[in-house]
Amino acid sequence: MSEIVDGALEAAHPEPNLRWLDIGCGRGDLLRRIRDEWQPAGLWGIDPIDWLEDDLRADVNFESVAAEDARDLPTVDRVLLVEVIEHLEAPWSALRQAARLVAPGGRLVVTTPNLARLRNRLELAVRGQLTSFRPDNQPHISPALPHVTTRILSEEGLIPEAPRFSGADVISLSKGRLWPQSVRSRHPVLTSVSVIIPAFRPPQA
To answer: For residues 201 and 157, what is the distance between their CA atoms, to the nearest angstrom?
Structure first.
């Protein structure tokens, strides 16, 4: 997960004095890192369950609200949905709402399980199911294809960038071995756990 978070933050182009929103912020680990490393102008976090850590409450504007209902929030410079949309019953509604919160010149970053990785393809062919969305993985309910994600973001006025890939996947039938970096660098789509989709809103003229 740490590599996915690093990739999401890199795609967000962090810098000081920005306003950040973390959708599905959980305990606030990502917001803490932003606070400690980039001196933000403001931090917002939402999650259906209030489990924000106590040391963040003075610095984070937190609301206990579902992602699909995030309407009464200010526009911000950076919006993050890190491994969130696959948990939502209405992922596209949530993504549209998130996109509307991106200020001119701002960026949005979505990460979600990479459906095109080799392990998913093999399991779909053999068992008729996706590794990331097996019946026993109940929190994952909404597979998100990158071309659908980028289409939704485009319809909301954002300009998507090329997808990136992060997180080493397990090699099938290898007893848990991960793909080596030498292979991952040549075949990121097949060997990565997560896809990262950045998009930006053009500055106002």
So the answer is: 7
